[in-house]
Design a protein that fits this description.
- The protein contains ten helices and two strands, in the order ααββαααααααα.
- With 202 residues, the chain is an all-alpha fold.
- It folds into two domains: 2-60, no CATH class; 71-200, no CATH class.
- The protein has a two-stranded antiparallel sheet with strand order 1-2.
- Helix 5 crosses helix 6, helix 6 runs parallel beside helix 9 (165-186) and helix 8 (132-157) crosses helix 9.
Length: 202
């Protein structure tokens, strides 16, 4: 256990000295055995082994009251279709724009189990029984598409020039090919035929 090997020190930073004090108290109580565990601080000073980005953000940011003019400069509508509220499921991939991107990249790859529903996609990524290279391709396309769409979404939010669905599809396709090429150079046999399978779905 880490407590057994720990030597108390003085630090210039107050929070580190506070941690040293907590460790010292635990050693005084004789709590020196057992497995170390990582705990994340949650709201109301609760601690959990599960990480929550929402709780973490609320703990590290300084909250301020909402300004009267906030609604005048911010909108929760989807930047792509302008017709629906922006939620995770809508952005990935229920929106008519992002679904078009996702469908072009994965409809043949996931056949006959294609879906644009977030929960169903996640379930397939974890539990689907496919050959290694096909499952890897779907996972990598998923990750790359998420990143590319999120970047496009942020660029549009900040007034950057919008890319068309075809341009986004081409960008993801290029990233997939580049990744497969780099893996081929390494000679990993598990990815043998990956480029051919990807080409067959385009």
């Amino acid at each position: 256990m880490a407590l057994q090997a720990h030597c108390r020190r003085r630090h210039r930073v107050d929070i580190l000295n506070a941690i040293e004090e907590v460790i010292h108290v635990q050693k005084q109580k004789g709590i020196l055995s057992g497995d170390d565990v990582f705990l994340w601080r949650r709201r109301n000073d609760r601690f959990s082994q599960r990480f929550s980005s929402k709780d973490t953000l609320s703990l590290i940011r300084t909250a301020h009251p909402t300004c009267d003019w906030a609604k005048g400069i911010w909108t929760d509508s989807c930047v792509f279709c302008k017709a629906q509220m922006e939620t995770r499921n809508h952005l990935f991939f229920e929106c008519v724009f992002t679904e078009k991107v996702w469908s072009s990249l994965t409809r043949k790859l996931m056949a006959p189990h294609y879906t644009n529903n977030w929960d169903e996609i996640i379930d397939q990524l974890h539990h689907a029984q496919r050959e290694f290279i096909m499952q890897w391709l779907i996972r990598y396309v998923f990750q790359t598409t998420l990143y590319t769409i999120w970047r496009e979404r942020n660029n549009r939010r900040h007034g950057e020039q919008a890319n068309s669905d075809k341009q986004i599809i081409q960008s993801v396709d290029k990233q997939i090919r580049n990744r497969l090429t780099s893996i081929r150079v390494l000679g990993d046999a598990r990815y043998e035929g990956g480029m051919e399978k990807w080409f067959s779905t385009r």
